[in-house]
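Possible race condition, two jobs.
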Amino acid sequence: MSEKYDVIVIGGGPGGYVAAIRAAQLGYKTACIEKRINKQGDPALGGTCLNVGCIPSKALLDSSWKYHEAEEAFADHGIGVGKLNLDLDTMLQRKDKVVLQLTGGVAQLFKANKVDWLQGTGQLKANKQVVFKPLEGDEQTLEAENVVLAAGSVPIDIPVAEVDQQIIVDSTGALEFTSVPKKLGVIGAGVIGLELGSVWARLGSQVTVLEAVDTFLPAVDQQIAKEAMKQFTKQGLDIHLGARVTGSKKNKNSVRVTYTDGDGEHEETFDRLIVAVGRRPYTEGLLSQDAGVTLDERNFIYVDNQCRTDVPGVYAIGDLVRGPALAHKAIEEGVMVAEVIAGEHTQVNYDAVPGVIYTHPEVAWVGKTEEEVKESGEPYKTGAVPFAANGRALAAGESAGMVKFVVDEKSDRVLGMHVLGPQASELVQQGVISLEFGASIEDLQLMVFGHPSLSETVHEAALATDYKAIHVAQRRRKK
């Protein structure tokens, strides 16, 4: 007789493990199926994000920034460090230690909440049956009242640059270089390409980024994107837009890449090449032919606003479904689905999901860009104030970038907030809260902000939408 659960979650990444924990908290007998084996050879929870994505990349971003500061900025503060020594092995070991601490923490949370961690793969069949193939042992069929599909995504492969994880790597391989490449190529100027390119540029690589699209960060407010491009170029990232890679040829320790742009065909040789052109839903082996779940033409699982699939009692979340492929979006969908199963009416506000690029300065945004609002034809106003006018930013030597608001001129509602600068990932949460509570820009204008703080630039940008900014000179827009 097959074992029966109230909830079976397939996938133990941020969306899946959170869905499992919340379901268990709500009193359901819950299992989470996860097949990942980590680099130490042990089963691991946390998915791409904790193991080979968000967390290890942030560890290297922070370590590499400290190295860069010691090399470039400490002298400005009167701190002499002499000749710097880069111990890349120790830097990578620290990254791995952070990963193990967090993934081990998830395993402990499973124990504390009595979630069964089933180590292996799961496939959904008809009637909410799940075929579980353990990493060791015999296959078994499980039954569930509810199934949550949370298998995540994998990097997109491109035939013109096939990944071997030696010379040509994806985002996972780019976290494991054992030496700093002298010349590094990056295909893709999106979030992953910019973050990983930044890490190795700070540590000494000559980095060239090839982006097929003509616009830099097309999803980002273009005033912010253009300023970000200037800052990244200043930092040494050689970014080529409209550059379509047409081929690659590997040698023993290098790769020759050909690409075309508006000026014709070009060729460059790199010691290593990172392919970061996006991610796709990981649905291989997830669904049997009789599962009844509908996929769209891009292989995303079709769901409604509360992540229900076409099969009653089957849900799909995270990178498997529409919307941005972000861990925090998957997490909130995991919570929502568990609570919907329990009969609650939770809803994720997809209009208030922030995006972040953890470069330095960071780029963060929430809500609508100026371009989107302009296209709608609705009257709007904006306010943008640079961090160069902020005392705390200047004291910290972090004066690059700005805060910008986009506001509905009729209702005075905040429509979007966009930040390039220090702690942008934290500051943007003020925009998230504003959108969530339907705040007017006047609400932010009337608040008291601590001085000196980076958040004062948020206040000034809010004031600037109505030409009330104190610490920057403003000229009125011509109507």
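Job #2 (started ~2 s after job #1):
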Amino acid sequence: MREGAEVLEADRHGDKVLRLADGSILKIFRRKRLITSAALYPYAQRFANNAETLAKLGIPVPRIIAVGRIQEIARDAVHYEPLAGKTLREMLRAGMLPERKRELKAVFTRFVIRLHDKGIYFRSLHLGNVVCTPEGELGMIDFSDLRIHHWPLGKYLRARNMRRMQGIADEVDWLDLGAIVSGRMPDAGAGN
């Protein structure tokens, strides 16, 4: 399976994300501690379950092919078809006109409000984990550490959810914290 694969992400413990020869993705998870909930509920399975739930909520996500354990390297893995499009981070780094950037910021703000309204607390929320699809929709990737509540998030959790992004210098200006925490776009003309 690994033959002809391109390593997209790795760390000192080995490969983490591979693009296989057929274009599909293999994401490999390692357990960081001996005693962990990941032994009973592996991150690969969390990823797959979250993908299914998010898809049911109308959020574009990768399509899961399989989940399993790679015994030879003692890792859990999820095999999936990637979500078509580019991450907002890729689009930002490639450069864009100021008007397009303003438009995407508003779309991103509405997307985050929509996630929070659906009870989604996405701890890894940043521009590198949000994809703009060819249809112009925003979708999510890398969501194994996400929680889904059965109610909209309150102001405290909405604000807390944005802390990681506030620490990313190139991305903090994409946050309209007032709108996100209140759950409302600043003006009716913004397409809420």
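Helices lie at 43-56, 88-94, 98-117, 155-161, 163-166, 177-182.
Logs attached separately.
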